[in-house]
Amino acid sequence: MLNAKGMNSSDLRQKNRGLVLKLVATQEYASRISITRETGLSKMTVTNIVSELINENFLIQASSKKSGGAGRNPVLLDISPQAPVILGFYISRLHIEAAISNLKGKLLWRESVPLKDENALSLEEKLINLAKAAVRRAENRILGVGVSAIGPLEQNDGVLINPTNFYGIEDFPVRALLERVCKAKVYVSNDTNAAALAELLLGAGKELDNFIYIGISSGIGAGIVSQKELYQNGSDYAGELGHTIIKYDGELCACGNRGCLELYANIQTLSQKLALAGGLAAGTVSPQNFEELSLNKKCDEIFSDMAVKLSYALINAVNLFNPQKILLGHEGGMLPQKYISQMEEYVNKHIFAAKVNKVKIERAYFGEDSPLYGGVCCVLNQLFNGDIFL
Ligand SMILES: [Zn+2]
User: Is the pLDDT of residue 173 over 60?
Assistant: First the structure.
């Protein structure tokens, strides 16, 4: 069967409306003129779409930019304060975070509840209470709800299948629960892909064509962006960088293999080793202490060792995808700059394209908040693609 989907004029109109909204939401100065120039749409089409979006309370005309030159300054457009809002959630092993965001990805409210010794019922109660609080706080219509969650998950049904070390909870129906409370469409994605989307739309990946977002937390995952598109094949099992093998006769991993990267480079193991080396009580080290601990000689060696191990996996990833940048996020965004620079140097010395290409390694723009912004961006991405009926 032919694997193609045609586009009706109403679909095309939605695509163009999404594109106009994207340019206004993600650029500092957007005008009808700049939108016409960037989209290649006719002046008339842009004028009509902008008028519709102003009438529907999505856009407003902001003040003119002082250009200083001759002639009239273009009228600038902005997202209306009355425009609908987005609810974003991030479900990790340790907490659930919720936020209300405007269409520019600016958080208007956020709250977090810790998770500890949960079961399916207590988790459901925490999620529902947080969602109710978000709905109460939302002053404008809720356009959609985006959830970034630990995987593996069934993306279409919005169900967390069986995350490891997640209190034994399986088949948790996030989408159904949130749709009931929020009365809006719910989009669910794994946290690493969602975080990569946040960097692509609003963060350090805005100007890039190809990059890899690496989320380092209790596990390690990669969100791969190729030609400005998130690599997804519908299975939710792509980008499992944490289960690439860096030591074939190494320790046994929960996945059944030996020597997986995330056994050696996850944040919990790092924190435990740092506590031991720094003479601190177990469980007292968090990513907020990393910078300070890096001054301790023994801790410095532990960080450097982790940087080398991460580098091996990054060399493999760079050889496979040849990205322009690698962005480190989740708690990995809290690693001291010194070790990020070490990794960049090591990786660039050992990649296949070392003589012709350099890859930059840096912190993600949203740092440890990337997955929460990622939840928001699951909805923004649909909106900007014209896939949400406005
Ligand atoms: Zn593994």
Answer: yes
Mean pLDDT of 169-192: 96
Ligand 1 midpoint to CA 17 (Å): 43
Hey, what are 133's tokens? 């609080």
Quick one: pLDDT band at residue 28, thresholds 50, 70, 90? confident
Domains located in the chain, CATH noted:
9-79 (1.10.10.10), 85-195+371-384 (3.30.420.40), 206-364 (3.30.420.40)
CA of 9 relative to ligand 1 center, distance in Å = 47
Separation of CA 248 and ligand 1 centre (Å): 11
For the chain, the maximum distance between any two Cα atoms, rounded to a whole number of angstroms, is 71
In the reported structure, the alpha carbon of residue 162 is separated from the centroid of ligand 1 by a whole-number distance in angstroms of 15
The whole-number pLDDT of residue 65 equals 57
**With bands split at pLDDT 50, 70 and 90, how would you rate the model's confidence at 69?**
low
How many Å lie between the centroid of ligand 1 and the Cα of residue 214? 16
pLDDT at 354: 87
Residue 347 clears pLDDT 70, i.e. is over it: yes
**Nearest 5°: phi and psi at 37?**
-65, -45
CA of 245 to the centre of ligand 1 (A): 7
CA–centroid distance, residue 250 to ligand 1 (Å): 11
- 330 to 87, 195, 253: CA distances (angstroms): 20, 8, 21
Question: Crossing angle of helices 174-182/120-137, nearest 10°?
Answer: 30
Q: What tens digit of pLDDT does each residue of 295-328 get?
A: 999 999 999 999 999 999 999 999 999 999 999 9
User: Would you say 344 and 230 are in contact if contact means Cβ atoms under 8 Å apart?
Assistant: no
Q: In angstroms, what is the span from residue 243 Cα to ligand 1's centroid?
A: 4
**Contacting residues for 331 by C-beta, under 8 A, at least 6 apart:** 216, 217, 267, 287, 368
User: Which residue, among 75, 73, 69, has the nearest Cα to 24 in the 3D structure?
Assistant: 75
List the alpha helices (DSSP H) in 138-217: 174-182, 191-202
Task: Inform me whether the pLDDT recorded for 92 exceeds 60.
Answer: yes
**Distance in Å, CA 258 to ligand 1 centroid:** 7
Alpha carbon distance 321, 328 (integer Å): 16
How far is 278 from 293, CA to CA, in rounded Å?
A: 7
